[in-house]
Structures are given as C-alpha cells and as structure tokens.
Amino acid sequence: MKILAIKRITTKAGKSLVLVSTANQDVFITAGQWKSAGASASLDNYVGGNIDARYFEEGEELFDGTECTESGKILDSFSVSANPAVLAHALAIESSLKETQAMDLNALFARKRAEDKAKAIVEPKAEKALA
Predict the structure, then answer these.
(1) Residue 81 belongs to what H/E stretch?
(2) Is this model's pTM higher than 0.90 or not?
C-alpha cells in the first residue's frame, strides 16, 4: 500500500505511535515495532513509499500468549520502504558530502606537506647560521 502520510502521535495513555495513512487504511505502529523493524526516524522519507502490514487473525496466538479474538485489529508485523525519489536524493547528497570531505582532506594534507617542506628548508639554514 502506498504511504500517503506519516506522523508520530501520542495516545491519551502516553504511548508513542507512528501513524501511517494509506488510501485503504491507517496503520498504527508502536515506537518499539518501528525501531525493531530497522525503520528510520526520518518519517518524511517514507511518504510516497510502501507499507505492507500483517495483522493477527482470529484464533492466532498473540505476543503475550493469549488468543486473538478479532481479525485485522492487532498488528503482527510490517515492512516499509522509503520513497525511491527521496532515497535517490539522499544518496546524491551523501555522495556530494563524501566528495567534499575528500577534497578538504586532500587540501589539509597538501598544506601539511608544504609546512613540512618549509621546515626542512629552514632548519638546516638555521643550524649553519649558529655554527
């Protein structure tokens, strides 16, 4: 199902949830489920992506060992993927950042080499002047 909107909410009981809205339904995911699935904390990356949610069916055993009494109400598992366009943009930014960091390091090493060469030239002249 395509993700149309996503946001963090807090229930009246103070429980933190991630609300994923699709055209078919809303999917409520606990913060623990979201984190254990390896999903990113940057929720905006998922708008336009996809979610596949699996709910417990009536008669199945729940996490706490009790039996599910109603199908389609309690989330068993889910998989989520980010928006491909957002991923491509993030990869481009990361690549650009790595290139900039490499150029900065290259400039730093070039400066250090130039300083070392200057010291090597100055130090022998200073020794001759003292002798």
Answers:
(1) strand 75-81
(2) no
Rounded distance between C-alpha atoms, residue 96 and residue 122, angstroms: 39
The dihedral sign for the CA sequence 24, 30, 36, 42: positive
Average of per-residue pLDDT across 96-100 = 80
Q: Tally the C-alpha atoms within 13 A of residue 127's C-alpha that lie toward its C-beta.
A: 6
pLDDT in the model for residue 90: 63
Best CA proximity match to 68, nearest among 83, 82, 57, 81: 57
Domain limits of the chain?
3-82, 85-131
Nearest to 33 by CA among 66, 79, 68, 99: 79
